Amino acid sequence: MDFLVQLKKNNLLLFLMNKHEWLLAEGRKVVKPYIDEESIDRNGRYALAFVIGGYWSVLIKWVSEGAIESPEELALIVKSTYRK
Fold first, then answer.
1. CA distances (Å), 63 to each of 21, 25, 28, 33, 77, in order?
2. What's the pLDDT tens digit per position in 19-36?
3. What pLDDT score does 74 carry?
4. Hey, how many other C-beta atoms are within 10 angstroms of the C-beta on 34?
5. Residue 62, number of CB atoms within 10 A of its CB
């Protein structure tokens, strides 16, 4: 948590988000032979960007408000926003 607070104070969270996005894209290349081609098409890239943006917005909000909820509680909050 302290690490994230320091990144936020120094306006560096964006760099971490960019690295996270890159790692997810690299991971998709690794699993490409095992997943449906349609899930990695142009629309899939936009969907991935949308999810990453939401994830990082929640993370920044959580850090900004003092990370009151535990990571497990935060995961449940985020999970409850998605429908199956």
1. 19, 25, 28, 37, 15
2. 777 666 665 554 455 445
3. 92
4. 6
5. 19
Residue 73: both structure tokens together: 């509680």
Q: What is the spatial distance between Cα 62 and Cα 68, in angstroms, rounded to a whole number?
A: 8
Q: Residue 56 and residue 47: Cα distance in Å, rounded?
A: 14
Helical H segments across the chain, by residue range: 2-9, 13-31, 42-64, 71-80
Can you give the pTM of this predicted structure?
0.61
In which residue are the tokens 């349609």 written? 38
Those residues with Cβ within 8 angstroms of residue 67's Cβ, 6 or more apart along the chain or in another chain: 1, 4
Q: What is the 8-class DSSP label of residue 70? A: -
